[in-house]
Design brief:
This protein is mainly alpha-helical. Helices cover 57% and strands 7% of the residues. The strands form 2 sheets. A 3-stranded antiparallel beta sheet has the order 3-5-4. Strands 1-2 form a two-stranded antiparallel ribbon. The protein binds adenosine-5'-triphosphate and magnesium ion. The site of magnesium ion has 2 residues, from loops.
Length: 394
């Protein structure tokens, strides 16, 4: 045991005695944090890659399509941690064709996107909400909107005892703090975020995420909201100006280690092990994101050239191409809307892009055919397939 990181509070739930864990306020002391050389190296690398990612975002002509790609990937991966099967293609198709989400899983991913953009906008507006318990509750309400979340009190701090692992609090792996302490513990966390501190901001984000998961303030959605909070904090501490880091990918690859390291903070007082794991995640994923950004950028630049120099190209085709990164799946009807053009004009534009090998017909139908920006989608799909997650280390 390196240190004690909280105290046990014994309560009774349904006639059974339960040992709930109440974390001490951040930051860890007694002894203070002592990061080893490896963790410090991860921290430096992580910061360096984040800076490169920030720059990469500035270099691309439109940061919007860049964010489009990353945010959607993040949304799919974050939901997949809980076992949501929605794929990136489901999401893109829903967005391309509009309408209601076909099933609860795709709805969950849409909610994640909605919640992230809501929180990001609030924090960017001068009179918007800062990172606070209120912002978290508002964001949570959006995250759990709809059919499946309805029974889970969206937007409200829990008023009952919850637990992780096991069938009831009495045999659980972990029992979070009793409900009457949740508001105070979160207020404390908010205070920590806005207070001054000598720790590196990346280390502080690691602390905040783990503390949030330990408090487990909501009946459901704590994992998703906690990961969204990481993205918000990167912005808050100006490590990354746009929400471009999809850390869920790392947690998905190493899910058991993720859970084990969170538990070790409580059980062994091991903050350092968690921080090191977290920093390794940021370093790894930021490096991959820079790589993805570069690849996408090169791809779009090359394809633009192909469209511009295509034998029978049209102005509409060139304009339609610029929509593809943010609308990688479309049909002629959608192209008409985007271009505010006639059907023949839009159809011709789609045809030019197809001839240039940029768009690929995806439906195999004669009527209402759909097209995809295939090489771009291919790059986005990497890492989001459910079937071949990398082996877990834990
Ligand atoms: N042993 C543990 N100690 C602390 N936190 C844990 C532990 N195991 C899991 N967690 C956290 O709890 C989250 C799951 O809680 P919850 O079901 O409320 O969130 P979710 O968003 O619905 O699920 P998920 O994260 O699986 O998508 C995990 O993502 C993780 O962050
Ligand atoms: Mg859940």
């Amino acid at each position: 045991m390196r240190r004690t990181t909280g105290r046990i509070e014994r309560t009774r739930v349904a006639g059974e005695e339960v040992a709930a864990f109440v974390p001490y306020p951040l930051a860890p002391s007694d002894p203070p944090l002592a990061l080893n050389a490896e963790a410090r190296r991860f921290c430096a690398t992580a910061e360096e890659h984040l800076q490169r990612l920030d720059l990469a975002a500035e270099l691309v002509p439109s940061v919007d399509w860049f964010i489009y790609a990353f945010v959607r990937k993040e949304a799919v991966l974050s939901s997949q941690i809980e076992g949501t099967q929605a794929t990136l293609m489901d999401l893109l198709e829903l967005e391309a064709h509009g309408g209601e989400a076909p099933d609860a899983e795709v709805e969950e991913v849409c909610n994640y996107l909605d919640a992230l953009s809501y929180a990001h906008e609030e924090m960017s507006r001068p009179d918007g909400l800062p990172i606070s318990v209120r912002l978290l509750c508002e964001t949570h309400a959006r995250l759990l909107r709809g059919v499946r979340g309805a029974a889970k009190q969206p937007g409200e701090l829990r008023q009952s005892q919850n637990w992780i692992g096991g069938t009831r609090p009495g045999n659980a792996v972990f029992v979070p703090p009793p409900p009457h302490l949740v508001a105070d513990l979160l207020a404390n966390l908010e205070h920590y975020v806005h207070g001054s501190n000598s720790l590196h901001p990346l280390v502080r984000i690691a602390l905040v995420h783990a503390q949030f998961e330990t408090i487990h303030p909501y009946l459901d959605g704590n994992g998703r909201l906690g990961r969204l909070l990481i993205t918000l904090l990167l912005g808050h501490w100006e490590l990354l100006h746009e929400p471009l880091l999809y850390l869920s990918l790392f947690f998905k690859r190493h899910r058991r280690e993720y859970y084990r390291r969170l538990s070790a903070i409580r059980e062994e007082g091991d903050w350092e092990g968690w921080i090191s794991f977290f920093l390794e995640g940021v370093a790894t994923i930021a490096a991959e994101a820079v790589d993805t950004a570069r690849t996408l950028h090169t791809l779009v630049t090359t394809d633009r050239q192909r469209v511009v120099t295509a034998p029978h190209t049209t102005v509409l085709a060139i304009r339609l191409f610029e929509f593809l990164p943010s609308h990688p799946i479309l049909n002629v009807g959608r192209a008409m809307e985007l271009l505010a053009a006639s059907r023949p004009g839009a159809a011709k534009a789609v045809h030019v892009l197809e001839e240039a090998g940029v768009l690929v017909e995806t439906t195999g139908k004669r009527k209402n055919r759909a097209f995809g920006y295939e090489s771009y989608l291919q790059r986005l799909r990497e890492g989001t397939e459910m079937l071949h997650p990398k082996a877990d280390r834990a």
